[in-house]
Design brief:
The chain is α/β, with parallel strands linked by helices. The chain has helices spanning 20-23, 36-43, 53-56, 64-72, 76-84, 90-96, 103-106, 118-128, 134-139, 160-171, 188-191, 200-212, 229-235, 264-273, 298-309, 329-337, 406-409, 440-443, 448-467, and strands at 152-156, 175-179, 216-218, 238-241, 247-248, 261-263, 290-294, 313-318, 341-344, 346-353, 359-372, 378-382, 388-391, 394-397, 401-402, 435-437. It binds flavin-adenine dinucleotide and iron/sulfur cluster. The site of iron/sulfur cluster (SF4) has 15 residues, from helix 3 and helix 4.
Amino acid sequence: METKPKKTIAPRVDMPCQPADVRAHNFDEVATGYTKEMAMQEASRCLQCKKPLCMKGCPVEVPIRDFIGEVARGNFDAAYRIIKTTNSLPAVCGRVCPQEHQCEGKCILNAKGQPIAIGRLERFVADTYIATSACEQVTGTNSCAMPVKGKKVACIGSGPSSLTCAGVCAANGLKVDVFEALHEPGGVLIYGIPSFRLPKNVVATEVDGLRRSGVDFHLNSVGGRTFTVDELRKEYDAVFIGVGAGLPVFLGVPGENLVGVFSANEYLTRVNLMKAFRPDNPTPIQKVRRVAVVGGGNVAMDAARCAKRLGAEVYVVYRRGMEELPARKEEVEHAEEEGIIFKTLNNPVEILADENDNVNKIRCIKMELGEPDASGRRRPIEVPGSEFELDVDCVIMALGTSPNPLIKSTTKGLEINKKGGIVVNEDGLTSREHVYAGGDAVTGAATVILAMGAGKTAAKAIDEALSK
Ligand code: FAD
Ligand code: SF4
């Protein structure tokens, strides 16, 4: 029988945040993090279950109960080492993992509506003991394995899947080169997730750790253009493809080509990577008054909250209801507090423009929810004759992304599935010998922790294959 909470459990310790009216005008991190006292207080709520259900919810099986026990005793160093045995980017995961659907969603205290704040504790521990070397990140020891095996691995892309693959390969004594299309490494962690959710120095620290362990980064290097997988294979013993799923999906409604319509990826890249929010930036973003963000996931929340910080009034237009929003609950709450207006149960049918082709309205139709569809969610159905218009001068489409076809179209024999994802076996091996893949490029848009898990699996398989 599983341990049941018998005694009265203290309430969950709130995360300190910048006030909503202040943070809605800056790009500093919203959640400012637990203090030592808060972390110990929250950790002491943990029941230290004999069979910790929380671990079952973690895709990389962090020994959650054990690290929380160390935090409760004030042993943060020990807690850090426990986390690092299975998670190479805890400062990132503690901030962006959908914990309510993973570890916290399985915590036994959920029955009381107050699960242990596992993500916040993970972040506290990682921030307290920020990693100093990549080998420490993956092996939990300070002794860096040097490239002794004489074998070389190339990783294409530098998101969480490739960073994890590179870190594990380097710690196993392989020489790793990472080839990234953009001018900064980090993937979505750098160009997509805004700094008010994930400060860029957190990602830069992880990348620096990899550099110190001998991983070389080649930026502005586009697989399928600057080089091909076949060319890499001539020089490297194995190749890992971690190029993500950066191809935006559009609705297919009239007006999507008008001036002032962005994909969320382009908008977020301009704001985050190209720092368009700085007025002195050489590539500033157009100043707009009213923005409609179409979609309801994390990407939509990030785009909406960036637009708010840039001074616009922002609507989130979503075809299902508030309950069905796929974004993390905390992000939705933060967005509401910051004044984002949710126009749920509405769907765009057309984008309209002035005489210069600049967006000036979005026409929507009201929706109602019918029976559940194949995804298990209630199907949105149009309400006939319910069209209306919203005055907006910018529309951001945040409807999802799919894998970019560039690598596939330039790599002979690389098997692809119907959704454009690279086909791999359980070790991450593709249909090409010694060519591995993982993360969003395989699964389509997913999560950071799943991409990391795939990078780790492939790295282990690469090490085994190259050790024969
Ligand atoms: P990516 O992170 O996409 O990295 C791929 C890298 O490959 C990029 O740097 C890209 O420039 C590079 N690349 C692409 N093509 C080439 C090429 N031909 N040659 C060389 N390099 C190339 N997940 C969560 O768990 N929590 C969240 O809160 C969350 N929020 C998100 C918010 C946004 C705005 C977005 C877009 C995604 C979010 N996700 C979130 C999803 C998560 O970020 C992704 O699932 C994860 O980053 C996938 O990792 P990856 O390594 O597969 O690819
Ligand atoms: Fe039990 Fe929750 Fe603590 Fe895990 S975090 S050991 S499920 S009380």
